Amino acid sequence: MPKSQTHVNEIAEIALARNPGEPEFLQAVYEVLESVAPVLDEHPEFLDARLLERLIEPERQIMFRVPWVDDANTVRVNRGFRVQFNSALGPYKGGLRFHSSVNLSIVKFLGFEQIFKNSLTGQAIGGGKGGSDFDPHGRSDGEVMRFCQSFMTELFRHLGEHTDVPAGDIGVGGREIGYLFGQYRRLTNRHESGVLTGKGTGWGGAEVRNEATGYGAVFFAERMLARTGSSVAGRTAIVSGSGNVATFVIEKLRQLGATAITVSDSSGYVVDEAGIDLELLRQIKEVERGRVSEYAERRPGARFVAKGNVWEVPADLAFPCATQNELLLADAQRLIANGVSLVAEGANMPVVPDAVHLFQEAGVLFAPGKAANAGGVAASSLEMSQNAARQSWTFGDSEERLRAIMCHVHDSAYEASERYGKPGDYVLGANSAGFVGVAEAMLAQGVV
Ligand code: GLU
């Protein structure tokens, strides 16, 4: 066995021994490890410096109690997390997730992915992630505000525009970022715009940040298709989820002449053959904070499939935009049988490893989240630049920059897939290109 492979196997064993009971984190680590042996063959200095062993160990992890009082005057206790994974390329950067499923394994997998994603963007941002097992669904604005204030009352001491810059993720949108920023400002007596991204455009937020993850995923898909002489125009897409990423995937697909016909949430999915009506979806999801079933009740011709599996709907393109491990092997088999030609991950790690392998064997174009959903964090980096320079760029200019970054992410991943022997394997390409970027910085900065 080549020395590189023996080393990778050793690191996999270390990861397993050090992180018991963290299946999502180990899944994310193994997926990267599967890709990096050829990089180590080319760069034996990375192996000698044991960069992989350092990479899989967060620089710092913070866990804390978040006590708050609900509207009925009952004391509630949640757990807060921030995993500061790697700052070789820039301040820790990554979102906060508020969802009942959040635990250390989930935050670590997300933080680990973020290192490679952020490296791929070519922007000066390290990797981190955080969140809480608090679920904002069904909570009043006042409850969400009190929770955010309590959360920030501990977290603020670990943040800073040059230290760690959180943003949104599942359950954390503009409302939560507003409350978090307000509390940070109050505690520090600093209007430090660059400490959080995803802010309102009237107070330091950047144009296109809100749209960026979804738009970016479609730009990425479009670039993949362009390489094979095709485009999204005229095609039908199925999209899972109904939050920020799904909404803006649907919007950009429509702008480029494609039709997205599904959305979903944990209760089931909606099919609307005429194309999802975004105005109605936004009214239900963002204004009323309701469920997708209400969409079908109010939209003639749309149908809600309770507890249904969105991957059973036939389409050309699939964008999993809900959450991790939402697309299983049987779903991949069904999608392939239904003739899907491209799958792009809008969410983080939504497709299980066996399903990824199956898509690749079947010749389906597959875009891993680290590359395809990098637009969100890339736009966050543009927000940080504007905050530092006290500027604000126009929507058009910002969207053009986002498109250029997504083309760069695509081309770096594609070139790396060629260099390491599997042209068009974007998993190999994204992992290896992301790894080389951060590994070179770590090597230059010594054993820290
Ligand atoms: N949560 C997003 C992601 O998964 C965005 C992070 C950010 O903007 O910092 O990349």
Q: Which terms summarize this structure?
A:
single chain; 448 residues; alpha/beta; Rossmann fold; 3 domains; five-stranded parallel β-sheet; 17 helices; globular; binds glutamic acid
The average pLDDT value, as a whole number, equals 98
* The named CATH superfamily of the largest domain: NAD(P)-binding Rossmann-like Domain
Strand content: 15-25%
| Total domain units | 3
Give the distinct bound molecules.
glutamic acid
Structural class: alpha/beta
Poorly predicted residue ranges: none
Top-tier CATH class of the largest domain: Alpha Beta
- CATH-assigned fold name of the largest domain: Rossmann fold
For the largest beta-sheet, the strand count, sense and barrel status come to: 5 strands, mixed
Please tell me how large the radius of gyration is: 21 Å
Physical arrangement of strands within the biggest beta sheet: 1-2-4-3-5
* Topology order in helix (H) and strand (E) letters: HHHHEEEHEHEHHEHEEEHHEEHEHEHHHH
Number of helices: 17
Please estimate the helix content: 40-55%
Please give a quick description of this structure.
This protein has 448 residues and is an alpha/beta fold. Helices cover 50% and strands 15% of the residues. It is globular and about 60 Å long.
